[in-house]
Amino acid sequence: MTLRLRPSAPALRLRTLLLGLVWLGASCISTTARHVAAVGDFEAGRFDEARTGFANPDTIESPFLRGAELGMVELTAGRFDAAQAAFDGAVDAVRELEERALIGPANLGEQIGSLVINEGVKDYQGEGYERVQVHNALALTYLARGNLDGVYVETRRADKLLETEETLYQKKYAAGGFAHLISAVSYELQGRLDEAYIDYKRMAEKGVGLELAGRALVRIASRLRYDDELPALVEKHGQPSQLPQDAASIVVLGGLGLGPYKVEDTAALMTPAGLAQFSIPRFVPRAQYLSPLDLVVDGGTPLRTSQVENVNDVAAINLQDRMGWLAARSALRGAMKLIATNAVAQSVRREHGDAAGIAALLVGSLLTAATERADTRCWFTLPAEWHAARLWVAPGERDVELRYGSERVSLGKLRLERGETLVILVRSLGSRLYVHSIGGETIAAVPTSPQS
Length: 452
Fold this sequence. Notes:
452 residues, alpha+beta, Serine Threonine Protein Phosphatase 5, Tetratricopeptide repeat, 15 helices, elongated
């Protein structure tokens, strides 16, 4: 005869309590050690190691986050085809959510406000600002590859998604400047000044990148003879600059530093019925060196970049707008756990005495403390700020250099044709610059970045 051991009733109830609470709010979902290591490789300029780390599904389970992190590594390294493929993967992972959001902001609100039994078991689909930034990054890959139609598609998508977030939260974010700037530059590359003017005007209306946008508005209004608008623009932004004959231009588009990361804020209260707890995430800016870039041509006066988007600020405000939903969801889950803990503890106490009931209550409270955690996943490789500058120069051979604190990166001697635009993509990590130029003919080459 086979002896079969059956657990006692208290053991069964405690097991039920254990499984139920784990189901209600499993382990803390946060950044893995592999994720941290990959970010460290990226920050140190070890792009091959970072790529290997981020490409591993064991590093990041979320397809959106994995594609976003990997894409930023490839973009910073100047591997534009690979960057585009990775960012496309991130977009594909959240396409259904984006389509619902674009149909109507209420659909996005329903998605955010719905009860999630465990914040961590759901697939991470990015904060609203992160989904916008993926399209900005994709636009850069299209610009680098000379596909201007792709630029328009991605910048318009970014703008529409931003408008959805603003409508949902009834707020105007100081955001969208980078997408409008990339779009405007692309229109100018095709000579479509009237459409570029619209993008610059949107920047001015939003109050982002105003220094760049204001000068561009005056320049284009003067060129297109927008006589009804020009006087007000000149009064606000100054007289149009005198450009060299058949001027070429140099456009700097730079991502500075690393964006914010999430930490967990937890509130706990011990009640006669057990532990009540809820947890919410909060963004924290990194302690890091951040300074505008300086563009120096032929050893002349440096032209300093202007901030066109502050990712740190937008991230914090965007998350704050979701805080009511997140806190409500966490509080509801906490209440469900409290009810479950109290019910089991009372049942155990009735059948097996006060000591067993107290033990069951203690087990439930410990599990509540261990399982009700905030989701602290986020896009780590995103810049803290986007900067830009534009300098008009006479065509011909030009020595081009970028400066960032004590860092100096020379692009060498470049020949610019009449009317040509040289686009320089820059990323700062720590005190180092990683630079890639698009356009111009190299006359005397030098390494364009410390590592790439």
